[in-house]
Design goal:
By secondary structure, the chain is of the alpha+beta class. It has one domain. It is built from 2 helices and 5 strands; from the N terminus they run H-E-E-E-H-E-E. The chain has helices at about 1-30, 80-90; strands at about 30-45, 50-55, 80, 95-105, 105-120. Strand 1 and strand 2 form a beta hairpin. It is elongated, with a radius of gyration of 25 Å. The chain starts with a helix and ends with a strand. About 5% of the residues are buried.
């Protein structure tokens, strides 16, 4: 009987300590905020190159061109493949999240979701 009582007391004590530690850790943790974007790649006609459009979720005018452009020349940038575009964005701090393909007629449109760490934000209570 004494052994069972000691065992139950020990289990409740350890359980209480674990709950207290979990609550303490939960309050101390900060959340990381991310910025997301979507790369949409379309293969050029009669070429192996890909033209990439970037969507940051911002409001755009109807005819506004959102294709990636060279920062120096302002010309529309084309990539050897979607992986080439991903490497380019990776150099700028973007991380790959997910990819999917939508086929329209005989044209494949590649959609790649990326995220970029924006910094730590205090946890909202």
């Amino acid at each position: 009987m004494k052994k069972a009582l000691i065992a139950l007391t020990l289990i409740f004590t350890l359980g209480f300590v674990n709950i207290f530690q979990a609550q303490t850790n939960e309050i101390a943790v900060d959340t990381v905020k991310y910025l997301y974007c979507e790369l949409m790649g379309i293969q050029k006609i009669l070429s192996n190159k890909v033209t990439v459009t970037v969507d940051f979720g911002e409001e755009r005018k109807f005819f506004q061109d959102s294709r990636m452009r060279d920062e120096e020349t302002g010309k529309v940038q084309s990539f050897n493949s979607m992986v080439d575009a991903l490497n380019y964005m990776g150099e700028k701090g973007w991380e790959f999240v997910q990819a999917y393909v939508v086929t329209s007629g005989s044209q494949n449109v590649y959609h790649w979701l990326l995220k970029k760490k924006m910094g730590k934000q205090p946890k909202m209570e």
